[in-house]
């Protein structure tokens, strides 16, 4: 583990191939991101780097509580630490930021892997599935704390005790984060990037993976956003929700490996 001059905390693998920077879901840490994405990259020569965003994990909140400020910190860290362009991967909010970096600083980005990406940040603006997921077995949510059950009921498409256990472990992995910063960011007018609706094309290889039962960000908005990605692959996966990496890890790996192949051609 090292600390950057931009005060982002990160873990880095010892690969010798292309560099991939992995960004976390909102409120989650680099440890959780590694648990989600590292199995999909296993056996490759990637140099994987997992970041804690400002106010997340072990990185202090040293910037204003806006998504643009967080994105700017990540871009400054990339300027300082990598030889651009690099591969970017992210889930949920991390994917939202990765797509924003590709719009605003395309010279930094070689390719995008976006897993359950946010497209519009305001919950009221998202197109969510109308159908309920297939019911899980009796007691599938019993391990979850009471205050998380409604969230997991909306978020999960693969509804088993084993998936719940894996997600709960990810939610508590890594450093403590800054709850005040996260609440201010999420509730403030700066939560949306100012250019989130701009259809600036990104011409590198892109893979967008969505969960058919994702009740948090859905799957339809992501399909409509594919006009931004002339070299984009879009997939929606059944029996998967917002925690797709933990719900369908084998399918994530298959699509990630295909994306990596395309980044080298």
Automatic annotation (TrEMBL):
Domain AB hydrolase-1: 35-252
SUPFAM superfamilies for this protein: alpha/beta-Hydrolases
GO MF terms held by the record: catalytic activity
Pfam families the UniProt entry points to: Abhydrolase_6 (PF12697)
InterPro entries in UniProt: AB_hydrolase_1, AB_hydrolase_fold, AB_hydrolase_sf
Top-level division of the source organism's lineage: Bacteria
Protein name in the entry: Pimeloyl-ACP methyl ester carboxylesterase
């Amino acid at each position: 583990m090292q600390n950057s001059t931009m005060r982002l905390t990160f873990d880095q693998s010892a690969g010798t191939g292309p560099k991939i920077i992995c960004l976390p879901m909102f409120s989650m840490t680099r440890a959780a991101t590694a648990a989600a994405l590292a199995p999909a990259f296993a056996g490759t020569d990637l140099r994987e780097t997992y970041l804690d965003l400002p106010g997340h994990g072990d990185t202090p909140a040293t910037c204003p509580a806006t998504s643009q400020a967080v994105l700017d910190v990540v871009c400054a860290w990339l300027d300082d630490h990598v030889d651009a362009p690099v591969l970017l991967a992210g889930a949920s909010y991390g994917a939202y930021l990765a797509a924003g970096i590709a719009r605003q600083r395309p010279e930094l980005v070689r390719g995008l892997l976006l897993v359950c990406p946010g497209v519009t940040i305001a919950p009221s603006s998202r197109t969510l599935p109308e159908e309920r997921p297939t019911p899980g077995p009796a007691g599938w949510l019993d391990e979850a704390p009471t205050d998380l059950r409604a969230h997991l009921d909306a978020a999960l498409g693969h509804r088993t005790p084993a998936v719940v256990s894996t997600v709960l472990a990810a939610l508590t992995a890594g450093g403590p984060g800054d709850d005040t910063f996260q609440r201010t960011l999420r509730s403030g007018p700066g939560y949306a990037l100012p250019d989130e609706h701009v259809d600036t094309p990104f011409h590198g290889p892109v893979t967008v993976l969505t969960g058919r039962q994702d009740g948090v960000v859905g799957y339809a908005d992501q399909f409509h956003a594919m006009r931004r990605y002339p070299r984009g692959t879009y997939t929606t996966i059944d029996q998967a929700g917002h925690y797709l990496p933990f719900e369908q890890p084998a399918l994530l790996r298959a699509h990630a490996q295909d994306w990596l192949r395309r980044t080298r051609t």
